[in-house]
Structures are given as C-alpha cells and as structure tokens.
C-alpha cells in the first residue's frame, strides 16, 4: 500500500511541476510540510522524493531541501554505431540462451548460448542517458557494416530504474546489428533512449 501511495504522490507532484506550480530551481515543501498537506506519513513523501530524484525531476541530497531540476540536455542520435563519448558502466555481463528473436537477428539456432553485456551510458553530469544491451557469439571482433531499425517500447521496471524513470515510460528502441565483410551478423544490440532526452535524426 505504501509503495503504491508513494508512486501515486510522485506522479501527482510531477504533474504539478509540469503545470508550473514549481519552476526549475524552486524548492519543494519539506517532507513534514507535504506529509501534513497530503495526510500521509513523512516516510511516504521521502520515498516519493527519492523516486523523483532518480527520475531527474528533483535535485537535492537526503535530509536536505529538494529542488525542481533543470531539464536534461536533449541529445540527437544520428549514428547508431558511433562510440559513446562519455563515461559508461557495465551493469550485466551474464551469458544467455538465444531467444527466437535474438536467434533470427544473429542467424543462429534458438537456445544457443550467447555472450551478453548491458552498458549504461552516462551524460557529462553523471545521469543515465542510454542503455545498450548487446549479444554475440564467440569472440567479439571488428565489423564492416551495420543496420539499425527504430521503434518504441515501454520500459520494464529494471530498465526504468537504471534510467531513473517511471515504469512504463516510453523510450526509443534502436535495434542495431553489426555484420562482417560477407554480410554475416556478428553482434546485435538494443539501444534504449528515453524520449525526454533524445531526438532521432535520420541521415539523408
């Protein structure tokens, strides 16, 4: 019940911020003040503030004032194969069995064991900008070309948590597959880009 309530409060606060009740840089009420206004325990407000800090809506440290964050920089994706120019953190490197979809993308049999890595790409301010999950078989080597397909998805709970967003937030999904000189797939990846932080510009 507490979890559902703090998520509901976080959603209400986000709507109030979007409506202009508080502007970037404005301090929000203290936990005690907002708890009294809403008729809830201060701990519930604290959890809502934590959720909004993770989502980049609020800034501020634990037990101190929290402020409306300035919007994150919006980046433009023009090359789905370009190296990320800032810091990255690997968050998962467990091997996995190829699903039907991954098998088709890599031209292998379903169930074949694939190498896997998920990397969180950070912007210069240290905020998560993109998640890249890659799968390949054997050794990871250089590629000669790539293809990319653009779609949209709703983030899972794990993905949303990593990106600091609410569950079911929309994101661009770029499916990138790399090929060798003979056109054989070497590696495939899902690039997840939050829609509030990215524009996608197709090359002419």
Can you describe this structure in just a few lines?
With 204 residues, the chain is an alpha+beta fold. The protein has five helices and eleven strands, in the order αααβββββαβββαβββ.
Any descriptors?
204 residues; single chain; seven-stranded antiparallel beta sheet; two-stranded antiparallel sheet; 2 domains; Arc Repressor Mutant, subunit A; Chorismate lyase; 25% helix; alpha+beta
Task: Describe the overall structure.
- This protein has 204 residues and is an alpha+beta fold.
- It has two domains: 67 residues, Winged helix-like DNA-binding domain superfamily/Winged helix DNA-binding domain (Arc Repressor Mutant, subunit A, Orthogonal Bundle); 126 residues, Chorismate lyase-like (Chorismate lyase), CATH 3.40.1410.10.
- It has five helices and eleven strands.
- The strands form three sheets. Strands 4, 5, 6, 7, 8, 9 and 10 form a seven-stranded antiparallel beta sheet that branches.
- Helix 1 packs across helix 3 and helix 2 packs across helix 3.
- The longest helix has 17 residues.
- The termini are far apart.
- The model has no long low-confidence stretch (mean pLDDT 89).
What series of H and E elements makes up the topology? HHHEEEEEHEEEHEEE
Summed up, the helix count is 5
Domain count: 2
The stretches of 5 or more residues where confidence is low (pLDDT under 50) are none
Helix content: 25-40%
SS strand fraction: 25-35%
- Calculate the mean pLDDT score and round it: 89
CA radius of gyration is 20 Å
User: How would you sum up the global shape?
Assistant: elongated
Q: What is the top-level CATH class of the largest domain?
A: Alpha Beta
Biggest sheet architecture: 7 strands, antiparallel
CATH homologous superfamily annotation of the largest domain: Chorismate lyase-like
CATH structural fold name of the largest domain: Chorismate lyase
Alpha carbon gap, first and last residue = 51 Å
């Amino acid at each position: 019940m507490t979890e559902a309530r703090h998520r509901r409060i976080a959603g209400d606060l986000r709507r109030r911020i979007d409506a202009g009740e508080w502007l970037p840089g404005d301090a929000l009420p203290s936990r005690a003040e907002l708890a009294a206004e809403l008729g809830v325990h201060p701990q519930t407000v604290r959890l809502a503030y934590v959720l909004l800090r993770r989502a980049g809506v609020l800034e501020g440290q634990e037990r101190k004032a929290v402020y409306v964050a300035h919007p994150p920089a919006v980046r433009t994706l023009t090359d789905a194969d370009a190296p990320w120019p800032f810091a990255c953190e690997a968050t998962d490197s467990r091997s996995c069995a190829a699903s039907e979809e991954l098998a088709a993308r890599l031209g292998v049999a379903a169930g074949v064991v694939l190498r896997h890595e998920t990397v969180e790409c950070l912007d210069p301010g240290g905020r998560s900008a993109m998640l890249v999950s890659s799968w390949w078989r054997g050794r990871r080597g250089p590629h000669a070309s790539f293809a990319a397909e653009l779609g949209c998805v709703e983030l899972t709970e794990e993905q949303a948590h990593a990106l600091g967003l609410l569950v079911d937030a929309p994101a661009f999904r770029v499916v990138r597959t790399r090929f060798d000189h003979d056109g054989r797939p070497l590696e495939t990846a899902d690039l997840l880009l939050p829609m509030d932080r990215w524009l996608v510009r197709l090359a002419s």
